[in-house]
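Dear support,

I submitted the protein below through the web form. The confirmation email said the job was done, but the results page showed an empty box. After a refresh the structure appeared. I'm attaching both so you can tell me whether what I see now is the final result or a partial one.
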Amino acid sequence: MLIDNMQEGIFIIQDGKLQFVNESFAITAGYSVEEVLGRDFLDFVALEDQERVIDNYSRRLAGENVPKEYELNVLHKDGTRITTNVNVGLITYRGRTASMGTIKDITERKRAEKALQYRLEFEKLITSISTNFINIASDEIDGEINNALKKIGEFAGVDRSYVILVSEDGTRIDNVYEWCADKKYPMVQRLKGVLFESFPWFVEKMRRHETIYVPRISDLPPEAGVEIAALQKASVKSIIEVPIIYGGVLLGYLGFTSVQRELTWSEDLTALLKIVGEIFVNALVRKMAEAAVWESEARFRAIFEEAAIGMVLVNTDGHAIVSNPALHEMLGYSGEELREMAFTDFTHPDDISDNLSLFKELVAGKRDYYQMEKRYIKKNGSLIWVRLTSSLVRGDGGKPQFSIGMVEDITERKKTEELLKEKARAELYGFIISALPVFASNIPSQVRNILVKNFAMRFERNIRPRFEEKTKQLNLYFDDGTYNVFDVFMLWIAGLFSNLGIKTRTMPGGAKRSFELLNCPWKGEASGNPIFCLICRTIVMRSFTWTSLKGMVEQKSSIANGSQTCMFEINVNQRRYQGNH
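What the results page shows now:
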């Protein structure tokens, strides 16, 4: 029978008994059809759902309006619960009223939804933790780290979360920060000055900067015998430890242990823990610098000298006090040469203004750090791209004393980004050329309208999937499960025109924005052939319809009409200004 080959389970209930089920229903519950027929349907409903199901069943038979579709947990033959979606209605069966419905196993879908929700909530928590460390005073860092460990530990359902730091000579470890769900599990007093080499398997992993993830202690290899014995003695069932790295140097590790149950963490969640480690290490390094300053802190000096990234201490006038070997190699200047220079001397002229503005705010105490991507001119005249993070160090009374600059060479990444942008630009140009040939300026408006309509349809078919994929990525960066739809759209449309080599300007914020194209590559052609302006007009207006926003896009100026730029005004309904992901 066709009904027996259906993927969804089908059932008929009459007088509270299962009068008919197909093969799919029986498989969902873990039984054969023969084992199910004639049994009370409640035998297959989880206890927590029985009252609700009985109420729906009775009221439906009485003619009341009750939900036809709902979720319930089915009891599998092996005792496990299967989450299902049920759709039920009334029929006449063998001359009497009966309930007939379908049932579908949605356990995996619900598990995936739960995992996604868990990740989003975890990201929100980490964003909150990161925000708490912005502009925090150095004497508050210890308390904030312990507070963050508590929040993550409670969220993850672990019994202990901690930060262990390696001594400056790399031989010993200290449990410096810790949170415990139960006071009987603390280790902070016992793990002081312990020889790092006491745990050889663990040490090897950490020195290779590897994350240690053990959902079950029995999963550890035989060569981890020392670690197995120590963990079993502490009743640990699961453990995850993430190395804390700064400038290529191992400073310690962030760890979580569970003694009550075994825990499974996905790769993306362990990646989020690495972000927490980065938040902690940035705060700790700043604390070290402020607490002991350069001359008297051997630990900071060792990190400074050995770091794989460029580091420099800069006075409030913008001159280098001291710089490390990595920066010397990066720029081609010696430490002595850099001390005679201001940072503006080797900054690309186009980047000086933005950098100076941020630096002045920093040394004025208006901000505690800033980060930017900029270009440096090396001693040999060549250019490199860097990511600069500059943090303020205050002296007595909170007065700005100097700044610590961390310089990472991102030249190769920039080259890769430019290649990808060129590729995307070529693809988009190719698409436009193939979709909309250049027509003479005296083409009849009716024909032009048809061409533009055809272009809009092809544009949507080719570009909309990219839009939806990109906006999903952007949505992850907003808090509370909501996102500002308008901001996401403006980011995407600016990026699209950037791939065409067109610079854009957006202003102001709120529910009304202007979107201006500043350097249209078709400016020469558009004055005689408005079809080029219709391309951009179509791109802006068509892509706006892909969002959930309600509003209007209006073109305010066009180079085809003699303006210097093309500008659009976008107004949205305030009530639809935000949407749910």
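Response: this is the final, complete result; the empty box was a page-load delay. Confidence is low (pLDDT under 50) at residues 476-483, 576-581.
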